[in-house]
């Protein structure tokens, strides 16, 4: 997916990064965060940076984290190979006698990861005078949770505080962290929020109505179709939360079923209905997978219970009603526990909280899908 009309967000991020302010991008899944990270990498040169996208999902060791950083440097056009060559020379000079004739991979394998990473970041810091390095780290919260699962709770605080220390030590290296779950939520769960207090939150939201309508028209136009105004309004109403991913899927399906080249309200209603068919389950499976992969018991079960309660209530539920609905059996939920669970579902994109204090599914279609395939 191309980065469609995120000009304001891109401009704001570059302004902050040029001012030396490291960023924590808060963005639920399917909102386009990875697309925006890639766009930042593509526009880095024009803004005076050398940017690397480092996806750390699927790794469980600190050493793997920095192997990914080096691999991203290696893929960086023009200067990457030279940077790694001079990095290897730096290791040979500073750590003489440890690994004779090694390249950076051998240094990483045979030295302490903190020692290696410190020299790596010092090297990037020293070679960033003309164009500072920007590390765009995707899925850091998932990596941190995997680190915890393998090495225990202490590993989370140890790694996050170490990252904080090197951000303050090597100020010519900029950082932007993103993930499909909030790093702030992970840090709160492990009581290490202080490790993030130098990061500036940046919220990446859904498209506003006018941009969403323009995006629908753009997707359709690339397929030789035009979207009627009433059809666009129907898509915006039924989705409710205007994720680029789901807007694109609806527009593509509507183009396949359009009568001629015109997409009508009837056509988009059919496309929206088909989004909930079993064969389209891959569009929604990440929402369940996120809970199953990233939350231990009993937290996972309680999140599912909250989601079921809110899914059944078309107009949403307030905190008291949720507390009452969860208060059964020996595992009755307290107010503080409920608040933490609701904060998770808010930050991870499942719920929104209205002015009336009621919690609702943020995306109308996700609620419909949850009722059809998840709630028993």
Task: Give the helices and strands, then pairings.
Elements lengths: L6 H12 L4 E4 L6 H10 L7 E6 L6 H14 L4 H15 L9 H7 L2 H14 L6 E6 L1 H12 L1 H17 L4 E6 L3 H7 L10 E4 L5 H13 L4 E2 L1 H11 L4 H13 L5 E2 L1 H10 L10 H10 L4 H14 L6 H8 L8 H13 L3 E3 L5 E3 L2 H10 L3
Parallel strand pairs: 1-4, 1-5, 2-3, 3-4, 6-7
Antiparallel strand pairs: 8-9
Helix pairs in contact: 3-4, 3-5, 4-6, 7-8, 10-12, 11-13, 12-13, 15-18
**CATH architecture classification of the largest domain:** 3-Layer(aba) Sandwich
Q: What is the end-to-end distance?
A: 35 Å
Give the strand order, joined by hyphens, for the main sheet: 2-3-4-1-5
Inertia-based shape: globular
Helix content: 55-70%
Number of self-contained structural domains:
3
> Nearest-angstrom radius of gyration?
23 Å
Stretches where pLDDT falls below 50 for ≥5 residues?
Answer: none
| Biggest β-sheet strands, sense, barrel | 5 strands, parallel
What would the average pLDDT be, to the nearest integer? Answer: 87
CATH top level label of the largest domain: Alpha Beta
- CATH homologous superfamily label of the largest domain: P-loop containing nucleotide triphosphate hydrolases
């Amino acid at each position: 997916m191309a980065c469609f009309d995120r000009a304001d967000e891109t401009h704001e991020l570059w302004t902050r990064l040029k001012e030396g302010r490291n960023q924590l991008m808060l963005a639920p899944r399917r909102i386009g965060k990875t697309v925006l990270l890639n766009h930042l990498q593509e526009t880095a040169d024009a803004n005076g940076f050398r940017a690397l996208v480092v996806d750390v999902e699927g790794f469980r060791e600190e050493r793997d984290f920095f192997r990914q950083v080096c691999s991203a440097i290696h893929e960086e056009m023009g200067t990457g190979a030279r940077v790694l060559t001079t990095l290897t020379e730096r290791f040979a000079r500073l750590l003489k006698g440890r690994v004779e004739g090694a390249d950076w991979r051998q240094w990483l394998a045979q030295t302490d990861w903190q020692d290696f990473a410190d020299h790596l970041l010092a090297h990037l810091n020293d070679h960033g005078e003309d164009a500072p390095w920007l590390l765009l780290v995707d899925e850091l919260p998932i990596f941190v949770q995997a680190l915890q699962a393998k090495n225990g709770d202490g590993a989370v605080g140890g790694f996050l505080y170490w990252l904080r220390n090197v951000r303050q030590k090597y100020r010519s290296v900029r950082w932007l962290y993103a993930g499909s779950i909030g790093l702030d939520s992970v840090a709160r769960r492990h009581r290490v929020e202080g490790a993030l207090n130098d990061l500036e939150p940046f919220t990446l939201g859904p498209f506003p109505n006018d941009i969403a309508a323009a995006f629908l028209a753009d997707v359709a136009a690339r397929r030789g179709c035009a979207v009627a105004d009433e059809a666009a309004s129907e898509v915006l109403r039924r989705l409710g939360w205007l994720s680029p991913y789901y807007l694109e899927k609806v527009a593509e399906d509507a183009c396949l079923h359009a009568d001629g080249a015109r997409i009508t309200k009837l056509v988009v209603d059919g496309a929206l209905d088909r989004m909930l068919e079993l064969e389209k389950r891959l569009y929604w499976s990440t929402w369940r997978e996120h809970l199953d992969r990233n939350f231990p018991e009993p937290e996972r079960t309680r999140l599912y219970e909250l989601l079921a309660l809110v899914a059944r209530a078309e107009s949403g539920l307030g905190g008291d009603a949720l507390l009452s609905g969860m208060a059964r059996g020996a595992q009755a939920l307290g107010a503080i526990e409920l608040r933490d669970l609701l904060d998770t579902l808010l930050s991870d994109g499942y719920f929104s909280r209205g002015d009336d204090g009621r919690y609702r599914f943020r995306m109308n279609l996700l609620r419909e899908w949850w009722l059809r395939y998840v709630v028993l």
